[in-house]
Amino acid sequence: MKWQRIPLGPLQTNAYLLSNDQKECVIFDPGGDGERLISIIQKQQLKPLAVLLTHAHFDHIGAVDDVRKTWNIPVYVHEKEKNWLQDASLNGSQFFIPDGGLAVQAPDELIKSEGQFSIGSFSFTLLHTPGHSPGSISFYVEELEVVFSGDALFEGSIGRTDLPGGNHNQLIKSIHDKLLTLPEETIVLSGHGGETTIGAEMDNNPFLNGF
Description:
The protein is built from 5 helices and 14 strands.
């Protein structure tokens, strides 16, 4: 397996493609620029199996319908955000996008629990990491030593908690209990910015020091 990061949309939200030797892939957080993302996938001759959302804020879902229509694949989100894709007041877009915000079609599948999760040959450990939003999920891939953390943890920072459902104390607890317990060499693939590691954030993240 291998992964690639593709910043998309006005906020340069990181979408990720996780692919295998059979040219299958899953798409994390297709945040915008649908035509560009589709072109990248087609040029690599990849076959998407699903869209996995770390959470349902508007900057992570902008190209969901473009991708879903092109390949007729299911979209997964945590059950706590099952209505967010269709509701601009919940996904935050009403605060940033004029003329009604952004709404896309409802998710196809709801994630209801932590633990092992598979799509085709792709296997993940699901970690519920709320705080940035109630249904934030991190997807840990032990084989690759990576975690797709969405907007929970960034290089030297953490997710904002001033949007609907945000809770700072809950986010700090999620990071401490769920992410910092991963092996220190684990690469953190965040929703914005570059890569970091669990060990680096344990040592250097000012939001986490002293917790």
